[in-house]
What does this fold into?
Amino acid sequence: MSAFDAKATGWDDEAKVARAVVVAGEIGEQVPLAEVTDLFEFGCGTGLLSLALDPRPPRALLTDTSAGMLAVVRDKILAEGLPGWEAAPLDLTVTDGPEGAFDLVVSLLALHHVHDVPALLARFRRLLRPGGWVALSDLDDDEGQFHDAHTHRHHDGFDRDTLARWLTDAGFRDVTFTTPHVLAKVVDGVERDFSLFLAVGRATRRDRQPRQPVP
Ligand SMILES: C[S@@+](CC[C@H](N)C(=O)[O-])C[C@H]1O[C@@H](n2cnc3c(N)ncnc32)[C@H](O)[C@@H]1O
It folds into this structure.
């Protein structure tokens, strides 16, 4: 049972829809979506980000650990009539996904829930075909101000230089950052702005394994 199950049906409020639309639009500026056939989303929630991509790739695997979130996405996929789209429980922090099966990996506000982000990025790289794209959005370093003390997370946002290094070490090149959105939130009675980054990179070609001699 995930803490997000109880939030799933009421998740899609105006602010969350708006931020997903803006981040999806920025992904469309950075990544040639028309060339993407197979999309993977990590921590999809109710699917707001992937469903806002334009054009939508013909095939998509949207993954989450919350059964409640996945139930909402499945209803949307059915309602929108997207035969190549699937929502499935998959936790890339504990298992590999299908190797070399995707052209684009996206994620919005899910990375901060993961302890070992470098290991997750290596798994994203493994999912991708050479030249494939990663487009990840989360909070910039928020000094612990964005989430309250009771909200489970592993990171209070991210430092861009550190994340860029992790992406490079995981096998991504041409890493760039933009700031697609700023969230306004009242903290201790004062409205504060929290910026979201979008990190985009391309999967490097991995060294080929030496061919095994034919017996
Ligand atoms: C803050 S919500 C964001 C949901 C959605 N991306 C959005 O922007 O509306 C974080 C999501 O990440 C999911 N999540 C957390 N840890 C995960 C993991 N290890 N694997 C897959 N999903 C995970 C949660 O279940 C939740 O749906």
